[in-house]
Amino acid sequence: MFYEEKTEPRLSDYTGKGNLSYEALLDILETVSTRHSLSIGDRLTNGGVAWMILDWRVEILRRPKLLESFTVKTWSKGKLNSYTSGREFSVCSAKGEHLVRVASKYALVDVKEKKMVKVGDELEGMYKPEKETQFAEEAPKLSVPETFDLEAPLVLRKSDLDYNGHVHNTKYLVYALEALPADDYRADDFTSIRIVYRSSLRYGDDAVIKRKSIEGGYSFCIFAGETLCTIIELKK
Q: Where does residue 100 rank: exposed (0-12), middle (13-18), buried (19+ CB within 10 A)?
């Protein structure tokens, strides 16, 4: 089952170049997916269970511009295994121009026990999974670089936390953008975003971000102490 919403972002969702910010894009995708879930009766936190993002794969064909409305379409790909489910998105302009394509992976998690639970057939059936896919091939696995060009401490703010007490998933992307060289930050021209979440950051964690230049962009790893939390790749 496909679900669509027309979106008109706020002025604060745009960069100084008039592009929809990367964080705002992910926030909008999350909001639309949540409304999709609510529309079919999946209350997300019934019984203390919630969907948790594991993986973002975003390809940007053109960023929406200041005050430009667009439509977000999303659908479930169904279970990827017993514990994870796929969800995809298509972002199109008011004229039908394809702007962004996205694939994501979610796990169903017991919030109190902090462990994944199985995605039941009944829950999967509520979403009526679709076969349409945004990418013909599987996303390459991300790995930790052997060496890094930069290592810097992260100051985690209370405002970065979500309702579970973890750093909200879009904030990891913000941390990576802040760790870019000044010229690349100002250029604001990445077309590929990949984020893989391994472990959650919490307020008070001894967090660091490490950056490595790679072909076409940068790889970032965020750690809490010795624990790898997130790997991010930004490419042009």
A: buried
What pLDDT is stored for residue 46 in this prediction? Answer: 64
Residues 172 and 103 grouped into a single domain: no
What would the 3-class secondary structure string for 103-168 be? EEEEEEEECCCCEECCCCHHHHHHHCCCCCCCCCCCCCCCCCCCCCCEEEEECCCHHHECCCCEEC
- 133: amino acid identity, one letter: T
Which residues are 100's β-sheet partners? 60, 91
CB burial of residue 33 (10 Å; 0-12, 13-18, 19+): buried
pLDDT, position 43:
73
**Residue pointed to by tokens 């076969």:** 131
Domain count of the fold of the chain: 2
Tokens describing residue 50: 């919630």
Domain boundary among 112, 127, 142: 127
CA–CA separation, 61 and 71 (whole Å): 15
Task: Output the six-digit token pair for 192.
Answer: 């590929």
pLDDT value for 166: 86
CATH number at residue 89: 3.10.129.10
Residue 107: the pLDDT is 93
Residue 3's pLDDT is 98
Q: Which helix (H) or strand (E) holds 183?
A: helix 182-187
Binned average pLDDT, 10 residues per bin, the chain of 236 residues: 95 95 97 94 76 96 95 96 95 97 94 85 93 93 96 93 86 97 96 96 94 97 96 98
Amino acid at 149: D
